Amino acid sequence: MKSKSLLAVLALAAVLAAPLAAQQKQGGDLMFATFSDPLYFVPFMHADSASSDVLVNVFAPLLNYDKNLKIIPWVAESYQISPDGLTYTFKLRKGVLWHNGEEMTSNDVKVSYDLIRDPAVNSPRRTVFEAVSEITTPDRYTVVFKLSKVDGVLLNAFTTAYAVPASEIQKYDKTKLKESAFARAPIGNGPFMFEEWLTNQRVVLKRFDKYFDGPVGFDRYVYLNKGSQATALVATEKGETNRVFVPEAEVARMSAIPSLDVHRYVGNVFDAIIWNCKGEITSDVRVRQALSYAINKQAIVSGIYKGNGRPGVSSFIPGTPFYNAKAPNYAYDLAKAKQLLDEAGWKVGPDGIRVKNGKRMKLFMITNKGNIMREKILQYVQSAFKVVGVEVEAQILEWNTFLTKYVEVGRFDAYVGGFSTGLTADHQAFYHSEATPSGKGYLNRGKYANAEVDKLLEAIKATADTAKQAELAFKVQEIVGREVPYTFLINRTQAYAYNKKVKNVISYDLLGWYNAEKSYIE
Question: Is the CATH number of domain 3-223+501-521 2.40.10.350?
Answer without folding.
Answer: no
